[in-house]
Amino acid sequence: MFQSLIDWLDRIGPRLQRAFIEGDRWKLYLQGLGTTMELTVIALIFGVLLGLVVAVIRSAHDQQRIGRRNFVLGVLNVLCQIYTTVIRGTPMLVQLFIWTFVIFPTQRNKVLVAFIGLGVNSGAYVAEIIRGGLMSVDAGQSEAGRSLGLGYFDTMRFIVIPQAFKNILPSLGNEFITLFKDTSLAQAIGGAEMLYYASTIGGRTFDYMPPLLGIAAMYLAIVIVFTWLQGRLERRLRESDRR
Fold this sequence. Notes:
Elements: H1 2-21, H2 26-62, H3 71-88, H4 92-103, H5 110-136, H6 139-147, H7 152-182, H8 194-205, H9 209-242
Helix pairs in contact: 2-3, 2-5, 2-7, 2-8, 3-5, 4-5, 5-7, 6-7, 7-9, 8-9
């Protein structure tokens, strides 16, 4: 048994060296990781801002009183519904191809295209997450804010959204983790992230197993850290509720 293990290590050692050590290839993995993190953070920020606007529009439309419907708000609500339906109903990879080959066919910066594609995709899911959180807040909270003389947006900003944030935090954290993993799809359009460099190194060494297993371990380690941080933040918010 030990001899078999030694023989396996003798075989795998040179493969690991070619994949990570020779030519300082480990720097390429770190460069890809940096791009992956940038894609995740910027796309999520863009998605949260876009999703917040969509969620507020749809919530404001749903909360209108019967007989006092706003036409402009109705049109915006229809556009938001079309946006969320189309984006959530089509694969992200197809959307990235459309952004790359249809909307921005002359754009050479594929990472920028990936930023836009991932952000727009995330925005549709974040919009539904935020809308669900806003709906979970008791309607009496909004009525209390309006009775104090606050306008709709001030009521949302100071009363409803802070309470809804605690409800949507787990789902928003899961969206962040999902988006982090989905950045690997940027490789299909030429985005230089982790999978792009792993595939490139595998092509140079004619051995794809070590690079792919290496980035899989990197993805897993970072997801574990994100999950741990999310759990700590949720526990802290629960403790603040008890006080």
